Amino acid sequence: GAGVSQSPSNKVTEKGKDVELRCDPISGHTALYWYRQSLGQGLEFLIYFQGNSAPDKSGLPSDRFSAERTGGSVSTLTIQRTQQEDSAVYLCASSLAGGKVYGYTFGSGTRLTVV
Amino acid sequence: DAKTTQPPSMDCAEGRAANLPCNHSTISGNEYVYWYRQIHSQGPQYIIHGLKNNETNEMASLIITEDRKSSTLILPHATLRDTAVYYCIVRDGGTSYGKLTFGQGTILTVHP
Description:
- The complex is a heterodimer.
- Chain A is mainly β.
- Chain A has strands at about 5, 10-15, 20-25, 30-35, 45-50, 65-70, 75-80, 90-95, 105, 110-115.
- Helices cover about 0% and strands about 45% of the residues of chain A.
- In chain A, the strands form 2 sheets. In chain A, strands 2, 4, 5, 8, 9 and 10 form a 6-stranded mixed sheet that branches. Chain A has a 4-stranded antiparallel sheet with strand order 1-3-7-6, with no helix packed on it.
- Chain B is built from no helices and 9 strands.
């Protein structure tokens, strides 16, 4: 597609349940990033994939969070045993070669609400 | 990456130029200045970036001072749709590592 696609756009889940968030990056973009944005807050880096290199997981807030990227394309962010503080908009972005020339292209995000 | 300082909010009249400042006094020689914006309920959008020369594209102009310690994003004819949070980010352009660090940004409100 022409842009970064994220699904679902909205997700309401009960505390303690697991959730999976999906990101389809722009075709050909080798780099993929996950950020989250809590209500009224700035963007918080979570994880970064670049080609076949080991991902940078330094931003994941706890071991309940994990992400994978299959075949260098689609990525899934999984949150296990969700907590209310996990409620946020989860944003995915992709870019060519780290985004230093053309910048990142972000998706519209998945709004996660944990009740 | 160097830290940036932006005013928390600014107002601009529709049709006038919006000039958004950013201080990055600790910027190093290899670091670029990037601008993104985030319109309500959307993901951030890349606007422009530069190293030391002024840059212009279809969206905006970027003016970087000679000492590179500050810059200004200029929207030449602001419209109501330009109301958004504008982020100024400084990052190393010498590597392919992609993590961007977003600060609090400037909330620009364009009014009729």
